[in-house]
Design goal:
single chain, alpha/beta, four-stranded parallel beta sheet, 46% helix, binds zinc ion
């Protein structure tokens, strides 16, 4: 290297450092925050409003959340009615930037008129989330397109692999055996994609009380051995499902991670871990 090159190169450093200040992203809940982190890497700094093991359906934003949204460069949400509290929060914060809807373009399942928001539980739809998020990040990260594209492709590959292995594992079980009880109706997309029937005492949101008739029907279904596996969820009070399992005469098969990651030390610290854990717990309980 010539002396002149040595002289020139340090002068370029401050410019590079300024160009790479991370994009401040606020995600509505922990699963989206993880996806943004996987795609954006060090080019983003992302926080979740609803954190690990917490329930986004009934969340109540705090004054600290108002400040976080106010100083965000980008706000990312699930949509499909999942974050009923979000519009008021954004208005209160004065945030005027983009609210990126991760589920954009997805045709939702419906129960009656209500869209089912839990589309991330089907990994083919999760790939659509990833493409939407990657496009949204690319528009705000000039100069970072190459690393973003590389990380996006790598992550999509991991989602495809997990999708395929889950399909194969469940396909080895007779269809009639694949019946599972969970606390709330969060696994409709999983069920449709991988061929499992999920029954639950609560509806698609956790804000409703289960009916006594629904609870006794579930207990009856367990006793008639139409249901093989009963799971509690990380975001819900386990007592009702424990009672249903007890009265049906079966053991609770473990915990499913429905609408939130676990803490970083838990079994579902990332979305890939969450899905692999759920698929494994369900397959094991059903005898695959
Ligand atoms: Zn839910």
């Amino acid at each position: 290297m010539r002396r002149r090159d040595l002289f020139l190169s340090p002068a370029l450093l401050p410019l590079a450092a300024v160009a790479q200040a991370p994009l401040r992203v606020v995600a509505s809940f922990s699963i989206l925050a993880d996806l943004v982190h996987e795609l954006g890497g060090e080019q983003v700094s992302v926080t979740a409003l609803v954190g690990p093991d917490a329930d986004a359906h009934v969340y109540q934003p705090s004054p600290a959340d108002v400040r976080r949204v106010a100083s965000a460069d980008l706000v990312v949400v699930n949509g499909l009615g999942f974050e009923g509290w979000l519009d008021r929060l954004v208005r209160a914060s004065g945030y005027r930037g983009t609210v990126l809807v991760a589920s954009a373009g997805i045709t939702p399942r419906r129960l009656g008129r209500e869209p089912d928001p839990h589309a991330w539980q089907d990994l083919r739809l999760a790939q659509q989330y990833v493409r939407t998020l990657a496009a949204g990040l690319a528009a705000r990260l000039p100069g970072a397109h190459d690393p973003l594209a590389v990380r996006t492709e790598a992550y999509l590959g991991r989602l495809r692999e997990l999708d395929e292995s889950t399909r194969q594992r469940l396909a080895s079980l007779p269809r009639a055996q694949r019946r599972v009880i969970t606390s709330h109706d969060a696994f409709g997309y999983f069920g449709a994609a991988y061929g499992v029937d999920f029954l639950s005492p609560q509806g698609m949101s956790t804000d409703s009380e289960p009916s006594a008739a629904t609870v006794s029907r579930l207990i009856r279904q367990i006793r008639q051995t139409q249901v093989r596996a009963v799971f509690v969820e990380n975001i819900s009070d386990p007592r009702l499902v424990e009672r249903i399992a007890h009265e049906g005469g079966v053991r609770v098969g473990g915990r499913l991670y429905s609408d939130a990651l676990s803490g970083p030390a838990g079994p579902a610290g990332t979305f890939l871990q969450l899905f692999a854990h759920n698929a494994d717990a369900i397959c094991t309980a059903l005898g695959a």
